[in-house]
Amino acid sequence: MEYYLKIGEIKLGTKDDILRTILGSCIGLCLWDKKKHIGGMVHIMLPTPPEKNCSENKGKYATTAVPTILNAMLKKKSQKSDLVAKIFGGASMFAKLESKNANNIGERNYSITYNLVKELHIPIVAEDVKGTMGRSITLNCSTGIVLVKTSKGIIEK
Amino acid sequence: MDINNILKSTFSEAANSLTTLIQKPFSIQQEDFRILEGDQFLNELEVNPEDFYFASILPTPEKFNFYVFLVLPENSGYALFDFLMGNPTGTTTTVDEDIISGVGELTNIVGHTFINKMADSLHTNISATPPVTTFDMFAAIMESAVTTENIRDEKILYSKSLLMSDDSAFTVQFFIVADTSSIDFLPKDE
After folding, report:
1. What confidence score (pLDDT) does residue B189 get?
2. Who's near B56: CB < 8 A, 6+ residues apart?
3. Rounded distance, CA B23 to CA B86, Å?
4. B87 CB near a chain A CB, below 8 Å?
């Protein structure tokens, strides 16, 4: 079954499931259980929530999305040691504006997500991040392979 | 005057500037106008998120925290560029630096006309910086639009219009992305 993730959504899949989303400055974090062949994806919009005790959609912010998707995988009986991570997105599509404002949201989204995953000791085995182009990513939950489509073509990660 | 009428008149003015620029008369048909809630915009717009679009962003750094977005489907961008360059329709079929620059110039004029007319309607001044133009997937563009300036409680004023000449029709979509407090300056629907 194919599922398209909107901003802030978290979704898990197994076997023949395909998870897909489109990213600009947002981050697509994929976790994959290499033994149980369970895949998870979250579409992260911003680094941190506006308030510490934000009850809003937890997938929207990196600091809440990373532990939430990990917990969802663990509830499916995944072992943390069996998980690998892949990170995509974080583009700066309006770079000229952002350099003026010193507000590169894509880079900050990536940096915080990367550090949070590292702190959890989950190996980051692939990434395609930053730059100036949007990305469409498709996670095959059976194989863990992610197809990354941009205006320049398709690559496999 | 309510915001719908303001947008109608501002878009008509912007379309007139386009007519002058490419020396071809257009009539305007506004097909849609809505206020969208921030990051839910993709659920409400009937657009294939993977389709490629030209998009220009014009920030208004002073007074109001909002910016104007012009979005053109790929084919409309090519056709308008051909008009601008005096080429037969269908000459341009791929994206390069020239077309990005050309579409940027079109949106610079249309966007500033739009902003100036809106300022007149509101009896105020609104300044905007030159546009930044890109070509990418619709969802990636719009997702970056609502995060670039880190507007967290954003609202989006959305206007979809059709520019029609005797032999052509182009879809142009205007978005005004604003934080909630800035959007309060706009008059409410009557």
Report:
1. 44
2. B69, B70, B103, B104, B107, B108, B111, B131, B132, B133, B134
3. 10
4. no
Q: Is the pLDDT assigned to residue B73 strictly greater than 70?
A: yes
pLDDT of residue A100 exceeding 60: no
The partner residue sitting opposite B136, judged by closest CB among A45, A106, A151, is A151
Question: A46: domain range?
Answer: 2-156
ipTM more than 0.85? Answer: no
Contact A24 B152 (CB under 8 A): no
For residue A97, which amino acid is it? L
**Is A96 touching B (CB cutoff 8 A)?**
yes
Closest Cα in chain A to B133: A94
pLDDT tens-digit profile of A117-142?
A: 999 999 999 999 999 899 999 999 99
- The pTM score is 0.83
Partners of A83 in beta bridges? A33
Taken in order of first residue, the domains within chain B and their CATH numbers are 3-183 (3.40.1550.10)
Bridge partners, residue B69, by sequence: B57, B175
Give catalytic residue positions of A. Answer: 26
Task: State the smallest CA–CA distance between residue B140 and chain A in angstroms.
Answer: 4
pLDDT at B147 over 90: no
Strands B27-37 and B154-164: antiparallel
Q: Do B144 and A91 touch (CB under 8 A)?
A: yes
Preferred mutation among B44, B71, B142, B148 to probe A, highest tally of A CBs within 10 A: B148
Residue A100: which residues within 8 A CB-CB, separation 6 or more? none
Looking at residue A48, which CATH number applies to its domain?
3.30.1330.200
